[in-house]
């Protein structure tokens, strides 16, 4: 393991978010490569404690592994993680273009395994999207970025009022955008919705509810997610994939398929076939 923060050498920047920078780092004594997320702890973003807490307690092949948490300076945390050498599903999409159904079945299978693990630990991710799904060159997919995630006592009785409003609204479920109208199911159902939108995006190559290149406003996104008619999948899409997306994107959270139901959906089972 890595005992001393001073043994780590920054090699380059892998990415950044609103409150963080992620570096590729070298552990000099072992020559091992890691990713290190540097987060400033300010009073206006009290979420950091959740991120480190969640990473410290999770252990799954489908969740990015944490190898240590350091505090190099007061008010700054360094989260050492396994390095995912193909970046995120978003980087892969930009580099290679839209995903085949075979590849998507594999991605769906692994992401669902990750969500199944997290939900069994009473962790809701709350920000599932292509840029938070990390990937290796051999296409192992792991859930990352727990910046807005929460550990709850009981996912079925928790409401979004208690979970904060951070996240990426384009991937948010109807019940999270408008809890009055859509009722509140199990908060785990929100992660399923976000995964459905993500897979659809990876298939068509752009955010699915709008034409490629269009940057919709918050209101336009809410209108289409909560009330609009969804676009059709391209003609060549299989019935299994189309049905899988319908099961993820059921507007009523109580009717939406759960992670364990989706794990035995015919589309996901395609991944197990030789
Ligand atoms: P955002 O606010 O944009 O969601 P963030 O500040 O929450 O970002 P992360 O999503 O955790 O930060 O990481 C930002 C980027 O850094 C990722 O999109 C990815 O490109 C890169 N990255 C993060 N973790 C790793 C890792 N373990 N291996 C390789 N690259 C990583
Ligand atoms: Mg992120």
UniProtKB/TrEMBL annotation:
Sequence positions that bind ATP: 37
SUPFAM superfamilies registered for this protein in UniProt: Protein kinase-like (PK-like)
GO CC annotations, alphabetized: cytoplasm
InterPro entries: Kinase-like_dom_sf, Prot_kinase_dom, Protein_kinase_ATP_BS, Ser-Thr/Tyr_kinase_cat_dom, Ser/Thr_kinase_AS, Ser_Thr_kinase
Pfam families tied to this protein: Pkinase
UniProt-listed Gene3D superfamilies: Phosphorylase Kinase, domain 1 (3.30.200.20), Transferase(Phosphotransferase) domain 1 (1.10.510.10)
GO molecular function, one term: protein serine/threonine kinase activity
Protein keywords: ATP-binding, Kinase, Nucleotide-binding, Serine/threonine-protein kinase, Transferase
Protein kinase domain ranges (all copies): 8-268
Similarity comment text for this entry: Belongs to the protein kinase superfamily.
Name listed for the protein in its UniProt record: Protein kinase domain-containing protein
């Amino acid at each position: 393991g890595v005992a001393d923060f001073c043994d780590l050498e920054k090699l380059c920047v892998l990415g950044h978010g609103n409150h963080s920078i992620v570096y590729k780092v070298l552990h000099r004594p072992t020559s091992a490569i890691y990713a290190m997320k540097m987060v400033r702890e300010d009073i206006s973003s009290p979420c950091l404690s959740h991120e480190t807490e969640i990473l410290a307690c999770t252990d799954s092949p489908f969740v990015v592994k944490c190898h240590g948490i350091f505090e190099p300076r007061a008010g700054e945390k360094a989260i050492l993680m396994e390095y995912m050498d193909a970046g995120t599903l978003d980087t892969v999409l930009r580099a290679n273009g839209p995903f085949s159904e075979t590849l998507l079945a594999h991605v769906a299978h692994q992401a669902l395994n990750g969500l199944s693990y997290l939900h069994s630990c009473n962790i809701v991710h709350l920000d599932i999207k292509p840029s938070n799904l990390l990937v290796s060159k051999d296409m192992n997919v792991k859930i990352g970025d727990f910046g807005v995630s929460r550990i709850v006592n009981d996912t079925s009785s928790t409401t979004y009022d208690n979970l904060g409003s951070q996240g990426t609204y384009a991937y948010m479920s109807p019940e999270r955008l408008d809890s009055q109208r859509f009722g509140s199911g199990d908060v785990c159902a929100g992660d399923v919705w976000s995964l459905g939108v993500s897979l659809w995006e990876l298939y068509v190559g752009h955010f699915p509810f709008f034409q490629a290149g269009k940057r919709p406003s918050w209101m336009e996104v809410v209108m289409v997610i909560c009330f609009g008619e969804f676009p059709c999948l391209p003609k060549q899409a299989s019935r299994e994939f189309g049905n899988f997306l319908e099961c993820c994107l059921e507007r009523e959270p109580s009717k939406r398929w759960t992670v364990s139901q989706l794990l035995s959906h015919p589309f996901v089972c395609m991944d197990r076939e030789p």
